[in-house]
Amino acid sequence: EGVIAVLEELFNRAVDLQTASQDDAIGIELVKIILLTLPYLIASSSGEAVATLQQKASELLEKTDVVASTPHAFEGHVDPYPMSGDSGEKAMTAVSVISMLQRQLQEEASSGWQLKCIPRVYVPKVAPTADGDGEEANGDASKEFPKHSFPAINVPSTVVEGPRKLFPEMFFSLYADQEIESVPPTSNIASSLLRDAVVDTVNILDFNRIVVAKLLSEIDCFWAPGTFVKRSTAFDKLRSLQTEGKPTWKPEDVAIDSVFSQLFQLPMPEHRLVYYHSLITESCKIAPGAIAPSLGRAIRFLFRNVDSMDMELGYRFMEWFAHHLSNFEFRWKWAEWIPDLNLSDLHPKKAFIIGVLDKEIQLSFAKRVRDTLPQEYHLLIPASKEIESPPFKYAEDSMPFAKEGREVLGLLKKKAPESEIQPVLDVVHSEAVNHGVEPLIATTDVYATAICSIGSKSLSHALSTIDRCKERLHAVGPQSEAARRQIISSVFEFWSEHPGTAVNIVDKLLNYSIVTPMSVILWALQDHMDRGRALAKSETYELISITMKKMTNRVRQILRERDNFALDFSQRQAIDEALPRERESMRALFAAIEDAVAGVAEGAQDEMIERFDGEELEQTMIQGWGQRWAKVWRRKAIVEEGVVGEAAIGPLKEAPAPPEAVPEAVVAPADDDMDRVE
């Protein structure tokens, strides 16, 4: 009785929140809590209370249907499969977790609340027989235990959202609703209950991935007998079990499915992606015979549908897959994907393969990765990628400014002062003017390329060289925006065979403020768009992502300091004045991305209109990449507005007054407590 009253109060608060704002997500979360509580409440009841609880639960379901069945405005932005793939069909229909849960409970109510997966922790009474055997069988169950009234709970009138912004949650599954049921179907309440329990375990115990992996390998111990098949049951055997009407749900599939649902959570996961990476790795180590086959089917499902997958999820899949293979000697059945090598580099599947191999090389080295691949893949890893330190282009006499480039390199290696380097750059400046080349761009290329060459030994070498030369690099930007972008061009040209390394170096240049976020955006999406083809390259997305991550983190950090009541109000006012400027800078970056990719999506980008030398299919694929980019970055812009926008943060508040100190009563110590001096 008492629990139902609390749930009804939570529902009233949810309705108030939903009425106040159609974009509210807290009310949806409250309704989700209500719906997930009902099955356990009913399953734990016994005797005469069951019928009453079932009736009240059904009445509550009628109320929650209003909230649960109403689509949220943001749902369209977090569809994991927003596009149709080559087959013309989506991998799965987008459905919100709360609407699916509502339908499942309504179906369960109509079938008498069987809730077969929930174990019953009580022992039903056994009817006594004439000789009294029943009383012995009942044991303690024959006694009437006292019942306690549920205490009153006051739900706060003001609902505090908490540190993490809430968004509608869409259901994601690798195995659900397929011909053979290795996980509960989406029509069964067990799919939501099992998923919720596993996800809570994963996200709450994130401080110890080894313990979590151990619990995931034992999830069949915590549910009703007969819910799962035996661990490590071969997938091929499930078909015969399904025909015989026996359980077919694999505990390994349920665990992996739940972890991937968090790894692929939009708009952002609960924890860092690497946590879910490491959790999957630990699970494979604990139960390789059980997890590896399930993981193999998951990988094949994801790759089969990568062309219809949300682009951000596609890159999460790419990063996880490369990271996972690096932990297991880069072993995978690459022969299965050989037919996809004949696709255009613009096709999402071919782009995925290229991106994975590049990331594997970053995590190891080219020769080792190539040795794990069939011969057909070797064209994707040419011998030039095996060169650890790229050649210095000014070593060739045929290059303009070759002599001066070698001199600058030698001076930087000797750590010569700028006074010795400047005369050499002055010569480059003069020759560039004579040849009709922008002099500052020429000198910047010579200087930046020399820095890249010195720093090619390791990232620490690159950082120390950049730090030593940062004053001259800093001076380039204010003189010429084109020269500032030339720094990025020089880095990517030098590391053309290893674009991931180039991205890492530009990341450091951003940290030093040598290049600006806007210069990176315009360099990638304007100067080097290549009529939209750049959007299919993983390094382009990675470069834009790290740039925008730095900017959004900066704005969020300013917001946190603005609301830090430990600071003086005057300090917080100064921060509050800086917030609009930084927010507008962030919006300008999102607008620049939107302008660039929207033109590609519509086939209206300037260079695409002027000249297109590919086939119609190629143009369609390029426009598809534009649509993927537009969807991802529009979503990210909406998320940031929901966190740092004017409507989200409100006016600056003064620190709450400290509570009045209550004087403590002075109690005379007992004689035994007094220190005695003998």
TrEMBL record:
Gene Ontology CC terms, in alphabetical order: nuclear cap binding complex; nucleus
UniProt-listed GO biological process terms: mRNA export from nucleus; nuclear-transcribed mRNA catabolic process, nonsense-mediated decay
Positions of the UniProt region annotated as Disordered: 651-678
Gene3D superfamilies the UniProt entry points to: 1.25.40.180
MIF4G-like type domain sequence ranges: 184-375, 392-640
Coiled-coil residue windows: none
Gene Ontology terms for molecular function: mRNA binding; RNA cap binding
InterPro entries found in the cross-reference section: ARM-type_fold (IPR016024), CBP80 (IPR027159), MIF4G-like_typ-1 (IPR015172), MIF4G-like_typ-2 (IPR015174)
Protein name: MIF4G domain-containing protein
Taxonomic source organism: Hortaea werneckii (Black yeast)
